[in-house]
């Protein structure tokens, strides 16, 4: 049975003839011939190129792929193939052969090797991130020192606006969260201590926990989720709209205009919010102690003052400025990393929150060990 198409035809006697125009304009149709031409080649005894009208590099590439190296070698000796087509097929076949010879061998790596490679890359990325963070933090400290030497450069309006947004407006959620957690801590502590007849030590537990750890830590985590993300989103949005580039062109330092007011505002806000958080947590514990344990407010305060001590309060408050610097610096830095798309803005905002929470918990753990070793 004869097989006929625009680009080849086969007779029942096993004669295959390549016909038509094997050029780029017909590349889509030629690629679809693979299965048909393969079937025709299986029964072909001779191949004729006398009816091939036009051939370019793309068509020659497909012919070499379809016919195979052995048939192409025979075709190059075929008198029916035009000299120009013969030269083109020879060059294409040689190029394909050389490309196959020089193709690098894919090495098979074990799962352990791949895991080590991945961990190594992540370690290098973490190192680069740390270097970038400290460099940015250095620029922030430099700007703050210059502003202290030149007080007229402080942007008080911007600082007050950020204190309102990151501090004053956060008071309700800070107070409510710490009040509830203080009540939960007191309830759980009383439940356990009741078994030993030591429910009075619930006061010590609540005071110690909130003055040293919970007050500042919960506040910092909330600020990481609330304020750091806002800093990143705002600066990142300005980055998308090329407003930061406009500031640089105008001769204005973005660090002084965008970063320093935010850092200063959080340095003021976070210690005050921490103080409110400690008070709210203790108030929550006092509420549970009054209604469940029968401890009077006067006795609660007396135990808190006499037994817990001021040093625990000072230890907790000393962490607040450090957390403020870390949260504000990280939030602003991630905003400057935004590049060209809303997807990048969302990714950096997420990174900002995750990094801030991680750094806050890490620094809190290190400081807790330091204070315990110092006996503070």
From TrEMBL:
Compartment(s) where it occurs, according to its Swiss-Prot or TrEMBL record: Cell inner membrane
Protein keywords: Cell inner membrane, Cell membrane, Membrane, Transmembrane, Transmembrane helix
Membrane topology listed for this record: Multi-pass membrane protein
Gene Ontology MF, one: phospholipid transporter activity
Keyword check for Transmembrane helix: yes
Keyword Membrane appears in the UniProt entry: yes
Transmembrane residue ranges: 130-150, 170-193, 255-275, 282-301, 313-333, 353-372
GO cellular component labels: ATP-binding cassette (ABC) transporter complex
Matches recorded under Pfam families: MlaE
Family per record: Belongs to the MlaE permease family.
NCBIfam families per UniProt: MlaE family lipid ABC transporter permease subunit (TIGR00056)
Protein name: Probable phospholipid ABC transporter permease protein mlaE
Species assigned in the record: Oligella urethralis
Lineage start: Bacteria, Pseudomonadati, Pseudomonadota, Betaproteobacteria, Burkholderiales
């Amino acid at each position: 049975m004869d097989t006929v198409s625009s680009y080849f035809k086969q007779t029942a006697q096993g004669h295959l003839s390549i016909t038509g125009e094997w050029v780029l304009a017909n590349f889509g149709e030629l690629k679809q011939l693979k299965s048909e031409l393969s079937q025709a080649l299986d029964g072909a005894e001779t191949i004729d190129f006398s009816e091939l009208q036009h051939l370019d590099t793309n068509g020659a590439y497909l012919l070499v792929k379809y016919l195979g190296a052995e048939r192409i070698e025979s075709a190059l000796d075929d008198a029916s193939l035009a000299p120009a087509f013969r030269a083109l097929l020879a060059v294409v076949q040689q190029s394909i052969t050389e490309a196959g010879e020089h193709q690098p061998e894919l090495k098979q790596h074990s799962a352990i090797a791949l895991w080590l490679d991945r961990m190594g890359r992540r370690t290098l990325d973490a190192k680069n991130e740390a270097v970038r963070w400290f460099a940015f933090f250095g620029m922030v400290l430099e700007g703050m020192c210059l502003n202290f030497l030149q007080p007229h450069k402080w942007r008080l309006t911007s600082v007050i606006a950020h204190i309102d947004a990151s501090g004053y407006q956060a008071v309700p959620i800070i107070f409510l969260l710490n009040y509830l957690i203080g009540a939960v801590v007191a309830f759980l502590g009383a439940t356990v201590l009741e078994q030993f007849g030591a429910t009075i030590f619930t006061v010590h537990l609540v005071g110690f926990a909130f003055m040293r750890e919970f007050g500042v830590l919960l506040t910092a985590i909330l600020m990481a989720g609330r304020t750091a993300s806002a800093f990143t989103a705002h600066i990142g949005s300005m980055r998308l709209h090329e407003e930061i580039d406009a500031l640089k062109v105008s001769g204005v330092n973005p660090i002084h205009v965008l970063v320093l007011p935010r850092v200063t505002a959080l340095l003021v806000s976070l210690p005050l919010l921490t103080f409110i958080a400690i008070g709210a947590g203790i108030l929550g514990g006092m509420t549970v102690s009054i209604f469940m344990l029968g401890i009077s407010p006067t006795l609660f305060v007396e135990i808190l003052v006499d037994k817990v001590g001021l040093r625990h309060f000072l230890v907790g408050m000393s962490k607040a400025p450090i957390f403020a610097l870390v949260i504000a610096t990280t939030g602003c830095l991630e905003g400057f990393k935004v590049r060209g798309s809303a997807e990048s803005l969302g990714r950096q905002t997420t990174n900002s929150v995750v990094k801030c929470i991680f750094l806050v918990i890490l620094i809190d753990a290190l400081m807790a060990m330091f204070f315990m070793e110092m006996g503070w």
